[in-house]
């Protein structure tokens, strides 16, 4: 998983942290991605958060310890359809 292809990978189970958001209350949310829908990520940390994808910038930590920042607008879409886009290119 790299910066270029993280959009095509499964996000559930990755450690995530909200770096920037249009709503200041969302900044700093940290935990593991529990679920993903078309427009939201469910992150479990000290509590369960449902975060809209299109208004945040997220930093994911891979199993190797690499930190990758992603604009949430690049993640909008049903997970299974986003994963299929890889094969269309």
TrEMBL record:
Which branch of life, at top level?
Archaea
What Gene3D superfamilies does the record point to? Ribonuclease P/MRP, subunit p29
Q: Which SUPFAM superfamilies match?
A: Rof/RNase P subunit-like
The UniProt entry's GO biological process terms, in alphabetical order, are: tRNA 5'-leader removal
Quickly give the catalysed reaction. Endonucleolytic cleavage of RNA, removing 5'-extranucleotides from tRNA precursor
* HAMAP family registered for this protein in UniProt: RNase_P_1
**What's the family?**
Belongs to the eukaryotic/archaeal RNase P protein component 1 family.
Q: Please report the name of this protein according to its UniProt entry.
A: Ribonuclease P protein component 1
The scientific name of the source species is Thermococcus gammatolerans (strain DSM 15229 / JCM 11827 / EJ3)
* Organism lineage: Archaea, Methanobacteriati, Methanobacteriota, Thermococci, Thermococcales
């Amino acid at each position: 998983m790299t910066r270029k292809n993280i959009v095509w990978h499964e996000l559930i189970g990755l450690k995530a942290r909200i770096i920037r958001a249009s709503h200041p209350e969302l900044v700093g949310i940290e935990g593991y991605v529990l679920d993903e829908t078309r427009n939201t990520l469910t992150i479990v940390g000290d509590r369960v958060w449902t975060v809209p994808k299109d208004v945040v910038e997220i930093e994911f930590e891979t199993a190797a310890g690499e930190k990758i920042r992603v604009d949430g607008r690049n993640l909008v879409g049903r997970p299974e359809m986003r994963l299929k886009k890889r094969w269309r290119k």
